[in-house]
Structure formats: structure tokens, C-alpha cells
Amino acid sequence: MGKETYLNKKIVVDTSTSWIYIGTFISEDEKYLILEKADAYDISETTLSKQEYLLRVKQDGIVANREKVKILKDKIVAITILEDILEK
């Protein structure tokens, strides 16, 4: 993954589920990617598109609902640095 590229940066983790995770990447192990001060968000529970939600978070900041979260690497589809999310 190139851990140094993402370490201590705010990232967006897209998964193969309806959940996305936004937080500071602090560590990983064989099975998990670990974020702290993270927003675990179920896209299926909103009328906003994923892009609209990410733009709001980029503009307003992360509202953490998890102090720390471990995400199964097998479920990860994409990882993006939050500041790399493009405006419409």
C-alpha cells in the first residue's frame, strides 16, 4: 500500500459494503487498516450521494464517531487522501 504515503493523513476508505470510513490512518497489520478519530458512515442511510457527503466532510471537517476503528483489508475497495477529493 505504500504506508508512508498515507501515514498520519486523513483518508477515505471505501469498502465493498455500504460503509465508508474517514479518519486519520495510524497503523495496519496483516488483516486490518486502523484509523483514529474516524467517521464510520453508512451511505445507505442518507439521501446524499457518496461524493456529496465527502465534499461536506472535506469542507466542514471530520465529525468522528469512533475513537479508533479497524477495517478489514478484505473489504477495502479504495483508499483516497481526503484532500484529494475533487470538487464537482
**CATH architecture group name:** Roll
Low-confidence stretches: none
What is the beta-strand fraction? Answer: over 45%
Q: Report the count of strand segments.
A: 5
CATH fold annotation: SH3 type barrels
Q: Look at the structure and give the mean pLDDT.
A: 94
Which structural class matches the secondary elements?
alpha+beta
What is the helical fraction, as a range of percent? 10-25%
Termini Cα gap: 27 Å
Q: What's the assembly state of these chains? A: single chain
Would you kindly provide a written description of the structure presented here, covering whatever features stand out?
It is a single chain. The chain has one domain (3-84): SH3 type barrels (Roll), CATH 2.30.30.100. It contains two helices and five strands, in the order αβββαββ. A hairpin with a 3-residue loop joins strand 1 and strand 2. The mean pLDDT is 94. It is globular, with a radius of gyration of 12 Å. The protein is of the alpha+beta class. Strands 4-3-2-1-5 form a five-stranded antiparallel β-sheet, with no helix packed on it.
Q: TL;DR?
A:
This protein is an alpha+beta fold. Helices cover 17% and strands 45% of the residues.
Offer a few descriptive terms.
5-stranded antiparallel beta sheet, 88 residues, SH3 type barrels, single chain, 2 helices, alpha+beta
